[in-house]
Structure formats: structure tokens, C-alpha cells
Amino acid sequence: MRSTALFVAALSAGLCVAKPFQNRAYAVKETHLLPHDFKRESDAPSNHLIRLSVGLRQGRFDELEKHLYETSDPDHPRYGQHLSAEEVNELVKPGNETLDLVREWLHEHVEPQHIECSPAEDFMSITLPVAKVEKLLDTKYAVYRHVDGSKLIRTLEWKLPLHLHEHIDAIQPTTSFFRTVPQARTLVEVPDQSSESVNSLSYKHVKNPTVAKVCDTGGVTPLCLRTLYETVNYVPKVPGKNQVGLANYLGEVNNRSDARIYLEKYRPEAVKGADQFKEISIAGGTLSQFPATPGTGVEGALDVETILGISWPTPLLGWSTAGDPPFVPDADNPEVDNEPYLTWVNYVLKQKFIPQVISNSYEDNEQTVPISYAKTVCSQFAQLSARGVSVIFGSGDGGVGGVQPGGSCLSNVNNQTSFIPLFPSSCPYVTSVGGTVGFTPEVVAYDPRNKYSSGGGFSNHFARPSYQDAAVKSYLATIGDEFAGLYNSSGRAYPDIAAYSVNYTIIWNGTLRHVDGTSAATPTIAAIFSLLNDALIAAGKPTLGFLNPWLYKKGYKAFIDVTEGSTLGCNTTGFQATKGWDAASGFGTPRFSKLLKAVGLDDGYGHY
Ligand SMILES: *[C@@H]1O[C@H](CO)[C@@H](O)[C@H](O)[C@H]1NC(C)=O
Ligand SMILES: *[C@@H]1O[C@H](CO)[C@@H](O)[C@H](O)[C@H]1NC(C)=O
Ligand SMILES: *[C@@H]1O[C@H](CO)[C@@H](O)[C@H](O)[C@H]1NC(C)=O
Ligand SMILES: *[C@@H]1O[C@H](CO)[C@@H](O)[C@H](O)[C@H]1NC(C)=O
Ligand SMILES: *[C@@H]1O[C@H](CO)[C@@H](O)[C@H](O)[C@H]1NC(C)=O
Ligand SMILES: *[C@@H]1O[C@H](CO)[C@@H](O)[C@H](O)[C@H]1NC(C)=O
Ligand SMILES: *[C@@H]1O[C@H](CO)[C@@H](O)[C@H](O)[C@H]1NC(C)=O
Predict the structure, then answer these.
(1) Where does Ca(2+) bind (predicted)?
(2) What residues are in contact with ligand 2 under a 6 Å CB criterion?
(3) Domains plus CATH for the chain?
(4) Residue nearest to atom 10 of ligand 4 (CA)
(5) 3-state secondary structure 312-349
(6) Which residues are catalytic?
């Protein structure tokens, strides 16, 4: 990590900076209330390792945001002119004073060669034992236990020397209780493994497939999804120039053997895909074929099988990021504790080439995340978006809150009942995908068997971005005072769009399973937009990049409105689907022929 250069820069900075005039006294930089689902258990073991990410104040984020909105606005002359890595880095690079002061402080505690910098130098990371972090941030870490029994090592307050307060925006892991929770709900194993419960037509070759012929609510296959969303006749033209990415966390694995069985059965021509997709380990993320914890691997199987089943032969790249490990007190080799999103996004931002669409099915309650962390991670997503990446997240499986085990509807801020929005869906620079069920018509998903309820809501951390102003205002007018006080009507509203999400047929551990969740809708949307990018590249046009400004202005016309069902939760119906955009299904579900038309690629009669 260019340690020599850093070191020299630091030495000269050390000589130039007028230390005696700085206020070296520490003051509280951030406090965060303990989320209701956690209880303090004990002091933290002093030798537990933490990979601390220090987020420096970015130089010209406002300018980056302006570029992002211009290049993703279909009516702007710069539409589609995505920024290069260098351009993005130049915009967010912290000012010299910020860099000098932060380095000087870190060098008092760590050898310069142990500091890792992001390409824009907006992040500096160091791995230290708890005892040293406690000294660095004048704090005390503790072990906190979640209601589900897992543990995290965090603190509720940390300090910084006063002169650094305006130069550092966020440091984690400190006060963030965020956990990358997969939004897949496993259903019981399908007892009949010969899969007769799945309509046999749904995976055999069918001439002129129709939804009526190939879709069965009892078990959804790629042929059904491709027919429903009209990609079934589309043959990718430039797969080598286009990629789709998939993020795994928490020891989730993408099992090639399961993917192979799945593709053999449901998309035979794509079976090579099971051996061809690439996998990259970040910060020691597992690439094992066998999940370390029983039960994991379902999310990974759902994601990889769904994407390959729809977008093959578009190359798939999977990242597995370690981190946020549930703390195990007596483990001999504790994993290094880090913030998985920051670790992942900073890794990806370092790459010259990034897949044009990224599927990410992991969310947590926004209130587990301190606002500084949310803003910092969200601004890293803005960097990805500015580089022309469509960043896709699921809207969550707990409705407006309180329906999944351990879920509550208590606000951290005032202990009042409240709808609980999710992060990163609440970040305005990502596209959030809700889930539907049923074919004629599709309605907002609820499955009483596992209480999966598609999520939707309004952020408390991020204000409503202007691209969705008109759509959200007209929705708010239709709901009037209903739910007043339970949600923040001025916040970023989600989801933006939706896709099918119940009874996905997957193969996991060699057996047929059915799975629900916005985790199913997310890879489906990622795969469909990846095919649309393929068509755009083949036609010599730029890829879509950040979808939302286009969606809210023009793209919504390519979606079939979902007008029934709601985001059930908190003992209410939750937000109801209505005509037009709503906080339950966004604009509804996509149709590929209409998408082609919306991006100006219609050839008149669907002969793409
Ligand atoms: C910051 O430092 C770099 C290299 O030391 C220098 O080229 C640049 O002009 C400086 N920028 C400002 C705004 O001082
Ligand atoms: C999901 O599939 C099961 C059978 O496997 C069926 O009983 C159930 O009704 C299906 N759910 C929906 C919403 O269609
Ligand atoms: C996978 O299936 C085998 C039986 O085929 C079983 O022994 C094993 O426990 C299963 N693995 C998991 C993680 O459930
Ligand atoms: C729903 O209402 C019941 C009965 O009043 C209550 O026990 C429960 O805690 C409520 N659930 C939520 C999520 O608020
Ligand atoms: C919320 O309630 C808990 C105990 O139930 C209490 O410790 C905490 O101080 C309360 N927080 C606020 C903001 O009232
Ligand atoms: C509601 O959202 C706005 C805009 O993001 C924010 O400034 C405000 O603090 C939020 N209110 C609450 C109670 O969180
Ligand atoms: C993963 O792949 C292996 C074969 O490579 C298989 O035996 C195993 O059951 C698969 N699934 C899981 C969940 O480990």
C-alpha cells in the first residue's frame, strides 16, 4: 500500500504541522443508543482483533453527486457518460489538511506501513487489538448479545482529538450494530425430491412458452421468470463485455455442485455456468464449497442459481466478504471484526473494471446503523453508481417491521412504536427491489407460512431525493393521515421496483427447496437489467448505471403496476400498493420488451 510514499508525506507533514497550536484533548465524536434487540453482556476481550476503517471527510462529494445525477438523467446531455475511477477518486479525495492531520494522528499509534488506504484516500484502515483501539478512541468496547444469541463487540460512544472532529466522518466498527442479514426465508425442504410438486412444464423445453403454461405458484423456475418478464427469447450478444456481480457475506457460499444440479434441471444449456462463474475472497471471505455453519448457503444458492438461470451466458462474478463475525468467546483464532459493507465496497472501488450490475440481498434495520456510518457507506455506493454500476438491494422481508422472529416496532430514538426502515434500501443512490407473489395479477408478497412480508418504507437518515419527489408526494396524498407518526414522510422512500419472490425452486445441499424473500426478487432484477445492458452495449450505447433518475422519469413505463397487497407489519396492513408508485411495490415489475423500448432499442415487434 504505497507505504513509502505515505511515510515520506507523513514525515514532512509532521514537520510542517504546527502541533503546539492544536487542541489535542479528546471529545466525544459519536454516541449511538443500543438497539432494542441487543443486551450488554460483558467487557470485551482485550486481544480481540478489529479492522478499523477510518472514513475521512471527502473533498467534493457534492460535486460527485451532481455528476452522478447528470450522467443518470436521461434528459441531460451527459446521460450515460459514467465517470472513470480516476475522476471519482479525484472528486472524493480528502483535502490535504485532512490527510495530513489524520495520518499524523494514526502514526502516533501504528506503523505507517500497517495503514491501508483506499484509492481515493477517503478511507484508512488498520487492524488492532481491542485494547489499542480503546486507547486510540478513548473508549471501552463490550460484548453485546442479540436476541438471536449471536454476539458483537461494539461500543456506544467514542472520542477523537478535537482538532480531528471536522476531518473524520466515521470510524467503524465502533457504534454500528448493523449486521448483513440475508433476506431469504427458507421454507421446508420439498418432500418429494423427484419434484413432482413442481409443474413439469415449468422446466422442460416448451415451444412458445406462456405464463399459463410454465408458471406454477408452487415452485418458480427460470423458465417461468424468463417468460413472465419476457427475457425468454433474448440471446445475449456481448457477454464478454458485460458482467453481473453478486455479493456474499457472513460465510454464505456459492456451491457449484448445487448450481450444476439446478441448471441441469432448469436451464440445461446454461450448465457450464456452474463451473465458469468467478469468485473472489475479500478480507478472508470463504470460498469453500461447504458452509461452516449448518443452514448457511441457502442465500448463496438462491442468488447464484437465479442469476445464472436468467442471465447466462453473461459472466457472473461473486465476492465473498468476511467480517461482522458473531463473536465466539472461546474461539482459538478469532476472525478479524470489520464492517463488511465498507470492506466490500472499498475493495470493489479499487478495481478498474466493475460488473455493470451488482446484486446485494443483505439488509438490516436502519436504526442499528449510526447516521455517520450510513452516510459514509451510502456515499461509497454513490461512487459505484457514478462509475456506471447499477447497485441493487432487496427491500427486506419484514414488511414495515415486527413480523420476523425477534423483530420489533420500537424506535431506538424515543421508545415509541414506529415502522422500521431498512438500510441500505434507504440510501438514495441504490435501487431497492420489493417482492411480489401470484401471476394474474402479481401482488405484494406475504407468505403466512414463514411470515415473509415484502418490505417498504421511509428513511430517517436520508431525505427524499428529488428524482422521486413527484411520485412519492402523490402516493403520500393517497394515504393521507393513515400511519401518521409511524414513519418519516420526508425520508427517502423505497422500494423503487419489484419482482416475483415466493416459492423459488432452488437446489441446496443436493436437495430441492423452496425459498421466499426479496432475496429472490433482487437477483432476478439484477439478471434482467444485465440482459438489458447487454442489448445496450451491442447497440453501441452506454449501460444504464444508476437506475433511479431514469426509472422515475421514463423507465417506469416498462413496468407493470402492482396495485394489490401491502407491506404487512407492526400490527397494521403496512403501506398499501396503489395505482402508480407506492411504498409497497415501487413501480411494479419489469417487462423486457417494454424495457428495450424505454431505452430506445425497440425494433417494432419484439424481434430482439
Ligand atoms: C495538496 O498536495 C499535493 C501534493 O503534495 C499538491 O500537489 C496539491 O497542490 C495540494 N493541494 C492543495 C489544495 O493544497
Ligand atoms: C408455495 O408452494 C406450496 C407448495 O409447495 C403451496 O402450498 C403454496 O400455496 C405456494 N404459495 C403460494 C403463495 O402460491
Ligand atoms: C447435507 O446433506 C447431508 C445428507 O445428504 C447431511 O448429512 C448434511 O448434514 C447436510 N448438510 C447440511 C449443511 O445440512
Ligand atoms: C401486536 O399486538 C400485540 C397485541 O396487542 C402485541 O402483543 C404485539 O407486541 C404487537 N406487535 C408489534 C410488532 O407491535
Ligand atoms: C428506552 O427504554 C429503555 C428500557 O426499556 C431505557 O433504558 C431507555 O433509556 C429508553 N430510551 C429512551 C430514549 O427513552
Ligand atoms: C426524518 O427525515 C428527515 C430527513 O431525512 C430527518 O432530517 C429527520 O431527522 C427525520 N426524523 C426523525 C424523527 O428521524
Ligand atoms: C456443496 O457441494 C458439494 C459437492 O462439491 C456437495 O457434496 C454438498 O452437499 C454441497 N452443498 C452444501 C450445502 O454443502
Answers:
(1) 561-562, 580, 582
(2) 197, 217-218, 437, 447, 502-503, 514
(3) 26-172 (no CATH), 184-192+205-326+336-601 (3.40.50.200)
(4) 571
(5) CCCCEEEEEECCCCCCCCCCCCCCCECCHHHHHHHHHH
(6) 299, 303, 519
